[in-house]
């Protein structure tokens, strides 16, 4: 069994366990259950390192690996997790549960990829099947927005969690059009040069991954939230200043051991590209990030209403990032 298959099965086991569990009470002081709605890959090192550093500062973090952002969001709604990772704008607007984003981890940087033997440009995807991460995910939003901008209607939208999983499916030919992150775009180019075409996307400034929790949890666990947000900001700033630090984090905390030492070069290159592109968030997002998100997710059809009339406080709680910026300084 490959290391990737083991990771998929592990995530599936967590998902089944969470979906079948009875509701549980809130975590005790100093404990934090984080629902990670994706299969961790090299793009997760910054977040995983921040979690390890929060543990070093006394926050007892339990990381629940799920392979679907929907499951992570449902875990927060049901009280089976305390903090989720994703961009749950649709859920916030429609679930009736006071969930708030409280920090932005990264902004969207995805690459729609098609098999060049079948498609050459956006118009070729009219009526065709595409694969994205999950319902309500940034990958779906990008696809929907680009389809709208190019005047086409996508066919079936399949949900295939994990950028690495979608890359492998493209290589195997089981899907012909999908969307991947920078690391897996480079891998496709290396593994099958000339076979795939990266379709152009507009310049996007919207949340790819953020941290969210219920308003009550943020109020009642402010000290732990502050530690997590501070470490998230610090890891982002250190990696942006020197992308090779991501490799140091990986080795120090023994992150993603299945990938082997040969992944270190790819990790360094990925974070250099991300830092150069400005997709690492150094100040946690906040009101300006929310406004960018309103514009993007409204255009893609994932939230309703005029972006100019949407209120930041109905989607975000910026208190923790304001406190962290006051302590660490603004960037």
From TrEMBL:
| Superkingdom per UniProt | Bacteria
One GO cellular component term of this record is: periplasmic space
InterPro entries, sorted: SsuA/THI5 (IPR015168), TAT_signal (IPR006311)
**Domain SsuA/THI5-like, first and last residues per copy:** 56-244
Q: Which UniProt keywords apply?
A: Signal
Per the record, a Pfam family?
A: NMT1
Where does this protein reside within or beyond the cell? Answer: Periplasm
Q: Which residues form the signal peptide?
A: 1-26
Q: Which family does it belong to?
A: Belongs to the bacterial solute-binding protein SsuA/TauA family.
Name of the molecule in the record: Nitrate ABC transporter substrate-binding protein
């Amino acid at each position: 069994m490959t290391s990737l298959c083991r990771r998929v099965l592990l995530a599936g086991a967590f998902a089944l366990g969470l979906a079948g569990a009875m509701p549980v009470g809130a975590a005790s002081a100093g404990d934090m259950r984080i629902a990670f709605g994706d299969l961790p890959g090299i793009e997760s090192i910054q977040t995983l390192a921040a979690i390890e550093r929060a543990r070093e500062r006394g926050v007892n973090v339990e990381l629940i690996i799920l392979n679907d952002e929907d499951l992570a969001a449902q875990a927060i709604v049901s009280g089976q997790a305390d903090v989720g990772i994703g961009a749950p704008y649709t859920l916030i607007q429609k679930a009736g549960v006071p969930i708030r984003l409280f920090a932005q981890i990264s902004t969207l940087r995805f690459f729609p990829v098609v098999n060049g033997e079948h498609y050459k440009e956006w118009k070729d995807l009219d009526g065709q099947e595409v694969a994205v991460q999950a319902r309500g995910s940034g990958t779906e939003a990008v696809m929907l927005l680009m389809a709208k901008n190019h005047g086409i209607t996508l066919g079936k939208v399949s949900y295939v969690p994990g950028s690495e999983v979608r890359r492998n499916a493209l290589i195997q030919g089981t899907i012909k059009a999908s969307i991947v992150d920078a690391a897996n775009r480079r891998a496709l180019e290396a593994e099958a040069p000339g076979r795939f075409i990266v379709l152009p996307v507009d310049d996007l400034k919207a949340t790819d991954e953020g941290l969210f929790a219920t308003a009550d949890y943020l109020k009642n666990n402010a000290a732990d939230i502050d530690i997590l947000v501070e470490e998230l900001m610090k890891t982002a700033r250190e990696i942006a200043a020197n992308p090779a630090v991501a490799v140091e984090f990986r080795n120090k905390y023994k992150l993603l051991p299945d990938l082997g030492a040969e992944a270190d070069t790819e990790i360094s290159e990925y974070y250099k590209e991300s830092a150069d592109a400005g997709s690492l968030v150094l100040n946690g997002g906040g009101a300006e990030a929310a406004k960018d998100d309103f514009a993007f997710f409204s255009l893609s059809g994932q939230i309703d209403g005029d972006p100019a009339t949407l209120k930041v406080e109905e989607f975000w709680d910026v208190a923790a990032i304001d406190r962290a910026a006051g302590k660490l300084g603004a960037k």
